[in-house]
Every structure is written in structure tokens, then in C-alpha cells.
Design goal:
It holds the Pfam family NTP_transf_9. The protein is an all-beta fold and 197 residues long. It is built from no helices and 15 strands. A hairpin with a 2-residue loop joins strand 3 and strand 4.
Length: 197
């Protein structure tokens, strides 16, 4: 697929190494990510980030959250009054995005960044993160689904397994409650690899 087009099924990677969220670290790890990230909404390309230009944040019980440089976002974002604080990354700034087909359809507070991140997270300063939905989010051509609960911003793809932290900020979900793709990985968590795979 040429950069800028809609992702195709042929792009999907069916033999990716599985990553178990229970093997992810805490405090979270931020790494350069060798994945092609795209976001589509009503057929328009909202963001297109080539492999190697984004970061992902990996945290125990969370699927990856992807942070992309502002230059890769093709539609304008407007800041909103909302602000939240993360004990690791710092104060988050939130944005609204107007639908490419209707000015009346504006979605707020599902996009954020850290303009002054705390130590160890400076790499993502000013980078933009999107929750999954209402737009479609793709990782190397595979459409991601949202982390359960509509509270956190993780992206779930077919190679992400384990028990996810879910709704109502639950810290330790019941075994198998949010464990897609595998019956149980709680006691079989393989170490996550460096992002260069």
C-alpha cells in the first residue's frame, strides 16, 4: 500500500510475535516503535505516521499506547479545557477534532499529549495519542480495537494478549476477564522484545 491510502487486508501481519501485557513493566516503558500507524475517519486520513517515527508506551496490564509526532496529524486539533495528571508522565493536554464531513460532528477529549512530560518520558513531549474510536486506528495495516472500558487509551491488535486493565480503573481484573486471543496467559507471560522486530 502506498503511504496515505486506506490500509489493506494484505498488510496485516499474521505471524507477529505475541506480546503479553502482564510482562510489560511498571513504571511504563517508552520506546521508539517500528510500526506504521494510521488513523482514518469517514474515509479521510487523519494521521499517517511511518514506521520508526512514533513511540509506544508499554505498561503492565495495558495494551500499547501510541504517540505520533504532530507533523503526522493531517487534520487540525483544538485544545479543550480538560486536563489530567499521570504520576509517571505528568500533566496531559486534551484536544477536539472536527469530523472531515460535518462541522457539527466534533469529538473532544479522546486525543491528548504531554507538553511538559516528566523525567524519563521526555521523548514523547508534544507527541499526540489517540484513543480508538470513533475513528479507525491501524497498526501495520491491522485495525486495532480499544482497550476495554473506554477509560484508557491502549490499542489492541491480534498479537497483544493477556489480562487487560479494564473499566472503572480496575487494577487487577479477574483472570480471563479481558484476555483476548488466548485462553489464559497469566502464568505464561513471555518477556516483551525490544521494539526492533
Amino acid at each position: 500500500m502506498a503511504s496515505g491510502g486506506a490500509p489493506s487486508q494484505q498488510q496485516q501481519h499474521h505471524h507477529q510475535q505475541q506480546l503479553n501485557v502482564q510482562a510489560f513493566p511498571r513504571p511504563p516503558l517508552v520506546e521508539r516503535c517500528n510500526k506504521h500507524i494510521q488513523i482514518m475517519w469517514h474515509g479521510a486520513l487523519v494521521a499517517d505516521c511511518p514506521a520508526g517515527e512514533s513511540y509506544w508506551v508499554l505498561e503492565t496490564h495495558h495494551p500499547p499506547t501510541y504517540y505520533i509526532p504532530p507533523k503526522c496529524v493531517r487534520l487540525p486539533l483544538c485544545t479543550t479545557p480538560r486536563s489530567t495528571f499521570c504520576e509517571y508522565k505528568g500533566q496531559a493536554t486534551y484536544y477536539s477534532l472536527m469530523s472531515p464531513i460535518s462541522a457539527a460532528d466534533t469529538v473532544s477529549n479522546r486525543i491528548w499529549s504531554y507538553m511538559e512530560p516528566m523525567r524519563d518520558y521526555e521523548a514523547i513531549k508534544g507527541y499526540i495519542a489517540f484513543m480508538v474510536g470513533p475513528w479507525e486506528c491501524y497498526v501495520d495495516g491491522e485495525r486495532a480495537t480499544a482497550q476495554p472500558g473506554d477509560f484508557y487509551g491502549g490499542w489492541v491488535t491480534s498479537n497483544i494478549v493477556g489480562v487487560f486493565k479494564g473499566p472503572w480503573a480496575t487494577w487487577d481484573p479477574p483472570q480471563n476477564a479481558y484476555a483476548p486471543n488466548v485462553p489464559d496467559q497469566r502464568h505464561h507471560a513471555a518477556p516483551f522484545p525490544n521494539m526492533q522486530f
